[in-house]
TrEMBL record:
It comes from Myotis brandtii. It holds the Pfam family Methyltransf_25. This is Williams-Beuren syndrome chromosomal region 27 protein. PANTHER family: METHYLTRANSFERASE, METHYLTRANSFERASE-LIKE PROTEIN 27. Residues 71-162 form the Methyltransferase domain.
Amino acid sequence: MAQEEGGSLSQVRARVGASHGITDLAQKLRFYDRWASDYDQDVAALQYRAPNLAVECLTQALPGPPHAALILDVACGTGLVAAELQARGFLQLHGVDGSSGMLEQARARGLYQRLSLCTLGQEPLPSPEGTYDAVLMVGALSDGQVPCSAIPELLRVTKPGGLVCLTTRTNPSNLQYKEALEATLDKLEQAREWERLVAWPVDRWELATTKLEAVPGTSDSGGFISGIVYLYRKRQVAQVEAVRPSAQPLTGL
């Protein structure tokens, strides 16, 4: 039995490692379509914690009762984030993903009021400006998935004063992407589009697919990779206007 479980985990590690290695978006979406039916059990085997960590971070910062908040789950996959949200009382959930196979699994959960096929980075989100109290994107910020250039689109659909929660892996193979991501996040903060509330590094993100990716000392059996949760608040219009020169009153009319 232990050998069967070990063999299964080895297969899962190989499958997840293969997904991490795909940098072409079209190829990665086809991979996710094929993976969709096994995705939940695979990431559970790897003790994938990002959905739980991101929703916990958001819940602590979001004002007002959870049931009143309208939430967008970007790159929603099979709906793991929605399950975490519902467990904390969030009921108004919209989701988008670029994989039709993943959306089929998400739809089967029955947790989203609206699901849309959307490949962020190639097309805009299907929502008007300032729609959502909070936007999450969990597990999709890496090479071959959502490009850093798409981050402002998340801000566009967030209400002024609303929250944006993001995650990415910080294992060695994703560090170049993380560096570019943080440059994008910092640029938006310098432009006073949002303010950072949280940058939460986590050592035990999920089981590593190879020992080379593992955080030293996290386990004797392959170890864990690390990750990070970011939380930002979109600035209110009044906050942005306050940094601009005030208009002088008109006289002599």
